[in-house]
Amino acid sequence: MPRPSHSEGKPGAEEEFKQGLCEKLGALGLEAGSTVKVWMMDEARFGLHTEMRRVWTLRGRRPVVARQIKYEWDYLYGALSVIGGEAHFAHLPGVSLEWDETSLRDGDPRLPARVRIIDLPPYTPELNPCEQLWDIVKDDIANRIHATVTKLRAGMRPTLQRFWEAPRAVLSLFGRQWLQVELSASHGIEVSC
Questions:
Q1: Which of 177, 187, 166 lies closest to 82 in space, CA to CA?
Q2: Distance (Å, rounded) from C-alpha 46 to C-alpha 26?
Q3: Alpha-carbon distance values, 91 to 42, 43, 134, 135, 158 (Å)
Q4: Can you give the residue range of the structural domain that contains 103?
Q5: Looking at the domain assignment, is residue 137 inside a domain?
Q6: Considering the domain boundaries, does residue 14 fall inside one?
Q7: d(C-alpha 159, C-alpha 153), whole Å
Q8: Which residue blocks in 27-128 are alpha helix, DSSP H?
Q9: Burial state string for 120-139 with b = 16 or more CB within 10 A and e = fewer than 16
Q10: What's 48's DSSP letter?
Q11: Is there a domain that residue 5 lies in?
Q12: How far apart are CA 171 and CA 154, in angstroms?
């Protein structure tokens, strides 16, 4: 099945971003020889409204899955390291600039002063590996009823744990190596994938 594309997406925005990333990194004015960690971040809304997905069944049988329609939401923030494969997640009560900063800070009040943000173009989910991760999480919690947000979080935990414990799993989300290549080109560093 194809991934849906937003009707307001600008044609060519992905390629334009890829071609200009090296220049954007250079414009950050980082000191030569400084250690730089590059992370991709995103947030997603998950709810008690049952996520429906296809299921296997015997030929001629129509599968039946119990469905819950309940409008209570949880917001999951995720950050994935482009080079090291680390993953960090935070369940937060909403999505806003304040919660974005809380997610970035992660208990260290010095962090936001050191963080440099390069925005991805709007409506380009293929550039952000977190989007692929959200699809995996939704697949893993699909076709189940979660009575509470706490139980929903518990249902997500094994999937998230697989990524925070295994850097290779995180790195597999980056797929094509354009990002590692651009990072290497911007600083003359060889990146092993």
A1: 177
A2: 36
A3: 12, 9, 13, 17, 15
A4: 35-53+62-187
A5: yes
A6: no
A7: 10
A8: 97-105, 111-114
A9: beeebbebbbbbbbbeebbe
A10: S
A11: no
A12: 24
Dihedrals phi, psi of 160, to nearest 5 degrees:
-65, -40
Please count the structural domains in the chain.
1
**In this structure, what CATH number is given to the domain that contains residue 111?**
3.30.420.10
Give the pLDDT of residue 7. 74
For the chain, what is the total number of helices (H) and then of strands (E)? Answer: 7, 3
pLDDT score of 193 more than 80? no
Task: 109-113: list long-range contacts, CB under 8 Å, 24+ apart.
Answer: none
pTM above 0.90, yes or no: no
CB neighbourhood size of 5 (10 A): 12
The least confident of 55-59, 104-108, 113-117, 188-192 is 188-192
Whether 3 is in a domain gets the answer no
Beta strands (DSSP E) in 62-187 are 73-81, 87-92
